[in-house]
Amino acid sequence: MLTKRIIPCIDVDLDEDDEPAVYTGVNFEDLEHTGDPVEMARRYNEAGADEFVFLDITASANGRETMLDVVSQVADEVFIPLTVGGGIRTREDVRETLRAGADKVSINTAALENPSLITEGAAAFGSQCIVISVDARRRYDEAGEHFHTVDGESCWFECTVKGGREGTGRDVVEWVREAESRGAGELFVNSIDADGTKEGYDVPLTRAVCEAVSTPVIASSGCGGPADAHEVFIEANADAALAASIFHFEEFSIREVKEYLAERGVPMRL
To answer: How far is Cα 20 from Cα 13, in angstroms, rounded to an integer?
Structure first.
């Protein structure tokens, strides 16, 4: 089994003074201010994170550009792979974000609206730079293409855009297969239903994606502790587990999560 990764993530927005700040919420709503992005980046780099994710959570919804000056400051503080997402719409946006210090870019809305962006980005900068973010939610109707039994009910997973605010009607399984075929180097799977709940990752969603593709998959949303990371690695075969709240509020350290997993046979970089 390849080494699994533990990845802290910060959701960044502008506060009432137009200053960048980290926020944490539940189901992408009720956001609570939790810190300064540059300081948190420094802390997680020192804490032993395998990678770091910076998401500008309102850039796409508000039609503005990513905070590249803040990205550059964060990049100066981390010496591990840095993924940046939010507001990336064009190949030039990808270029500028990488120039600001990102190692990878995470794209959601723009890729769904213009799938050729994946192809162009992979050709220009390499597949390893292109991460496709999937904000998925469960739907219990007949509009999907791939159905899964969850808690005794049949559902499918729909791609959403603009931070989970809008549905697209696109089936997640079909979309990740297309994204992989177009050159995506990694898939970042967020669950709108599990986001911020600390009740565990959406294992059925993550498993459905992992079984559909060979591209590495990052499980995101819902982590309440080390046992949840263990479950998504063992039950869904995710390649990485992303978490925010448990680290931001110091409920667990990255070291504690890694040691818990290593003790149970999950290969970790300690």
So the answer is: 6
In angstroms, the CA 236 to CA 226 distance is 15
Spatial CA neighbour of 164 closest among 6, 31, 14: 31
Using CA atoms, how far apart are residues 152 and 139, in angstroms rounded to an integer? 14
Pairwise CA distance, residues 46 & 49, whole Å: 8
Judging by DSSP bridges, how do beta strands 20-26 and 5-14 pair with one another?
Answer: antiparallel
Q: Are 258 and 267 in contact (CB under 8 A)?
A: no
Rounded to the nearest 10 degrees, the angle between the axes of helix 37-47 and helix 68-75 is 30
- Which residues are identified as catalytic? 11, 135
Q: CB neighbours of 235 closer than 8 A, spacing ≥ 6?
A: 203, 207
The DSSP 8-state label assigned to residue 4 in this structure reads B
Return per-residue pLDDT of the chain as tens, 270 residues: 689 999 999 989 877 787 888 887 555 455 555 778 999 999 999 999 999 999 987 776 676 667 899 999 999 999 999 999 998 999 999 999 999 999 999 999 999 999 999 999 999 999 999 999 999 999 999 999 999 999 999 999 999 987 677 999 999 999 999 999 999 999 999 999 998 889 999 999 999 999 999 999 999 999 999 999 999 999 999 999 999 999 998 999 999 999 999 999 999 999
Which residues are CB-contacts of 154 (< 8 A; sequence separation ≥ 6)?
140, 147, 148
The domain made up of 5-133+171-263 is a member of CATH 3.20.20.70: yes
